[in-house]
Specification:
eight-stranded mixed β-sheet
Length: about 900
């Protein structure tokens, strides 16, 4: 007998892992012990579908194999722990907790670092091709979401996210997941939370803030882990530990935000288990005070020293005096790449901070000659070399400042900037500083009226914009047309993809608009977005802009265009960061905060700030695409940032889906070889497809492919709407034997992958036949080329080389002349009506007629009937009539 078990106080990860293990061990019995309250509710509701047994219902003497999930600690097995004292029991372990001395050992052990153990089992199920139902997918998703905090906990891995994506494809219901994970607190839990808050204190260990909350309850109250999460969010400490004495036991739960704190080690003296970021323990025969003292000792012992301001500061510090002019301070910032400078007086005292923003404002008002003392920020917040990184981060955020002077015994010894913190938290890929790259126009934005250009749009589109205007006016919301459609309107390029930004409630406005025009509505309330699909298929996207934006500290909030400004500032390039007002009072006004219209006129691709490529590496590919599509030039500073991002490997962080989508966009352009060549110049191809050898020859082949496609169209051979697949084939074909590895990397949907793989396998035979000396019968030519997808015909002359190109083109011309002539007069029903019974010979007869027609052997219906009788005589003795239908 085989049984599947997990730890006591079973959570959803343990439960889901048991159900997943049952898929791998279908003959095994799932055995439960004590459950968390929300898990118990779920099991009670679905008991008939799950088929669990309790430990008391199992004949323990018959057990030969134990499959353990989510634990390898004997003490956490409750009533089943004594089972392990019996010799000869085979143990299989699936766990995601780090191993420790004393852990159980199994004949099979799958122990890997993922956020949830369910992820490991889902991966195995997927690899083995075992089918799962939507109900099972939902249970597995519950396990992963709970143990990873809905994919937000630090222990979440890419494998957890991939597993959830797979489960959603298999029908997992997120509504059910939310219902059981985000349950409201029971009255008992609310009382316990209040007691924990009353007994809470915050202590600091090596710069790490730790919340220690204690409480005593007469009866057991479930959900202590949930309460610990809530306390961590309420107090915003680095670590939260709850210690609750209930029913003769002390329950300890810990949650942690920092990499340098390992809760599993801290709870080890209490025989606890778990992860570095989430762990728990149940202690018998100890008082609450004794447990707390053990925890305090473990915290002192195991928390490593914090990163401090002294570790990350820049030193020595470039400073200016109070009498330095604004212009000189600006030149120093430009020369050294700083965004701010400490102002130090003759006594070495830090009198203030002058920022790039302060300098720009003063110069804008013609005050470049003035001393910085009049414009510097005098309220200077300083830190010491011993200030922790978390405290530095808090000061920067709470005070909305970009840098902190580091003082030691009254001396300025360094400075810590926001970039220093970001680099420490996220690695070395952040470029120096975070600064805007556009010139802000005088007055904050450039306004032109494009009502005349809007009037030239197709009547249908113009009426839709007027309807949106009318609906927004009635709802008293500001509404704008934004993005690529604005860019292309200014360029005179057709683009009818309507993206609408709303200052207000975009889903509400979209709902009203859909009701008025009878459209279908899809809303995403969480993101403040909606899509309206009209009866004719026209799609209109609505998105909510931020409701307020502060132009500078202490300014009054701007509630209209400033919120639009924040929305536009998050976009990729200045030419895509313009908007057109659609409200009737300002209909047609172009709103251009970042001089995108000027860049459009000058043919420049410019990012809005220097971390743009870091935040979204797909912008690297989009910059090349727009540059080559419109014949523009990537602005020098933007180009430098792009090259740095490529060099730092940021493209390697892209998912296969995002990379594939951007490549398709490039290959769908009218002259994609230009972008392909430019990507080669910038070193992008080795970063995204190192297996391929994309050279000038590849670029030339792509251009030739387009020319051949046009020539074939003139011959009546259409290439279809997926011409980009031919270009992609040329790129991947350069990889030679690594062709399949490239396909794997891009994770192409199966319908596209099968087309490319089929072409790769057929290509040698087709080219060898078409370039051979043997004269092909028309039927043989048709048989050779008709199975090939029409989009790939243009590739054949290209890949045949110069010597074989003429012959291949001749073959394609002949093939084009044959198309439409291959269908016989007779159908299968006609042949049956001639007295032949149904069978495989009918299909063979039709194929024979097709070959005969193509080769000119039959041209009339009568000749076809005669040919069929002669052909079917091979099957039957009576060559005139064949077997009767009744035979």
């Amino acid at each position: 007998m085989e049984i599947i078990a997990t730890h006591t106080n079973t959570d959803f990860d343990g439960l889901a892992a048991m159900v997943a293990a049952k898929k791998l061990y279908p003959e095994a019995v799932m055995v439960l012990t004590h459950l968390h309250d929300n898990v118990e509710e779920f099991v009670s509701l679905h008991k008939d579908a799950l088929g669990f047994l309790t430990a008391r219902e199992v004949a323990k003497e018959q057990i030969e194999r134990l499959i353990l999930v989510d634990t390898s600690i004997r003490e956490r097995l409750g009533e089943l722990k004594d089972l392990l004292l019996r010799p000869g029991i085979d143990i299989h372990i699936y766990d995601h907790h780090p191993t420790c001395t004393g852990d159980l050992k199994g004949s099979l052990q799958v122990i890997e670092n993922t956020g949830a153990v369910t992820t490991l089992l889902v991966e195995i199920i997927r690899q083995k091709g075992i089918p799962i139902t939507p109900f099972e997918a939902t249970i597995f998703a519950l396990g992963i979401y709970e143990d990873t905090g809905s994919l937000l906990f630090p222990n979440t891995t890419a494998r957890d996210v991939a597993a959830v994506a797979y489960l959603l494809e298999k029908g997992a219901k997120l509504g059910v997941v939310a219902e059981f994970i985000d349950r409201p607190l029971s009255p008992e839990q609310k009382d316990l939370l209040q007691k924990l808050m009353e007994g809470a204190e915050v202590r600091t260990f090596q710069g790490v803030t730790v919340l220690l909350a204690t409480a005593v309850e007469e009866e057991y109250v479930g959900g202590v882990a949930l309460l610990t999460h809530k306390l961590l969010d309420i107090y915003r400490t680095d670590v939260a530990l709850t210690v609750v004495q209930m029913g003769g036991r002390v329950y300890v739960v810990g949650r942690n935000r920092l990499d340098r704190v390992d809760l599993r080690r801290i709870l080890a003296p209490l025989a606890g288990g778990g992860h570095a970021t989430a762990a728990s323990a149940t202690v018998k025969n100890s008082t609450l005070e004794e447990v707390v003292q053990k925890l305090l000792a473990a915290l002192e012992k195991h928390i490593r020293p914090a990163i401090t301001a002294g570790d990350i500061m820049s030193s020595p510090v470039k400073t200016v005096s109070p009498d330095t002019t604004i212009e000189e301070a600006g030149r120093i910032m430009l020369r050294y790449g700083h965004t701010g400078l400490p102002v130090v007086d003759e006594n070495g005292y830090v009198a203030g901070i002058i920022s790039r923003r302060d300098v720009d404002k003063a110069i804008h008002h013609g005050l470049g000659h003035a001393p910085v003392r009049g414009y510097m920020t005098r309220r200077v917040i300083c830190v010491t070399p011993r200030t922790s990184l978390s405290e530095v981060q808090r000061l920067l955020i709470e005070n909305d400042i970009g840098r902190l002077p580091v003082m030691d015994e009254g001396r300025l010894v360094g400075i810590v900037s926001r970039t220093d913190v970001l680099r420490t938290l996220h690695g070395g890929s952040y470029p120096e500083g975070y600064r805007q790259l556009f010139d802000t126009p005088p007055g904050g934005s450039v306004v032109y009226n494009l009502r005349d250009r809007l009037s030239r749009l197709p009547e249908k589109i113009r009426q839709l914009l007027l309807q949106i205007s009318s609906t927004a006016d009635r709802q008293k919301m500001s509404v704008y047309l934004v993005g690529g459609v604005v860019r292309d309107l200014l360029l005179g390029v057709p683009n009818y993809d309507l993206d609408i930004v709303v200052e207000g409630d975009a889903p509400l406005l979209a709902r009203r608009f859909a009701e008025e025009l009878g459209g279908r509505l899809r809303t995403h309330e969480k993101f403040g977005t909606a899509v309206v699909i009209l009866p004719d298929g026209q799609r209109i996207d609505f998105a909510t802009a931020r409701t307020e934006y502060y132009e500078y500290p202490a300014a009054l909030p701007q509630v209209e265009r400033s919120s639009l400004r924040q929305d536009l500032y998050r976009r990729d390039f200045t030419i895509n960061a313009m908007a057109i007002c659609l409200n009737s009072a300002h209909f047609g006004e172009l709103v251009d905060f970042f001089n995108g219209r000027r860049d459009l006129e000058e043919g420049i691709i410019r990012v809005l700030y220097n971390l743009s490529f870091v935040e979204d590496p797909t912008r690297i590919l989009r910059a090349v695409r727009f540059e080559q599509r419109y014949g523009f030039r990537i602005e020098d500073q933007t180009l430098g940032l792009l090259k740095a991002a490529v060099k730092d490997g940021l493209l390697g962080r892209l998912s296969a889906e995002r990379l594939r989508q951007e490549l398709i966009h490039i290959l769908q352009d009218s002259h994609p070889w230009r972008s392909v060549a430019r990507m080669g110049e910038l070193g992008i191809w080795p970063a995204i497809l190192p297996e391929a050898e994309i050279t000038e020859k590849t670029v030339a082949e792509m251009e030739l492919c387009a020319a051949v496609a046009q020539e074939l169209q003139q011959l009546g051979i259409e290439t279809g709407e997926e011409m980009w697949l031919s270009y992609l084939f040329l790129l991947l074909y350069s990889a030679g034997g690594k062709f399949s590895r490239c396909l794997d990397k891009l994770k192409l949907p199966s319908r596209w992958r099968k087309k490319l793989e089929r072409l790769k396998s057929m290509l040698p035979g087709i080219l060898e036949t078409l370039t051979g000396k043997e004269e092909l019968r028309p039927s043989r030519l048709y048989q050779l080329l008709s199975p090939l997808d029409s989009v790939f015909y243009c590739l054949l002359p290209v890949l045949a080389g110069e010597e074989g190109r003429v012959g291949v083109m001749e073959g394609l011309k002949k093939f084009g002349q044959l198309r439409g002539k291959e269908r016989p007069f007779l159908t299968g029903h006609d042949i049956i009506a001639m007295g032949y019974r149904p069978g495989p010979w009918i299909g063979e007869a039709l194929r024979y007629l097709q070959r005969a027609r193509l080769d000119g052997k039959v041209t009339t219906r009568e000749e076809e009937e005669k040919a069929v009788r002669l052909f079917l005589a091979r099957y039957f003795d009576d060559e005139k009539t064949g077997p009767a239908q009744g035979e």
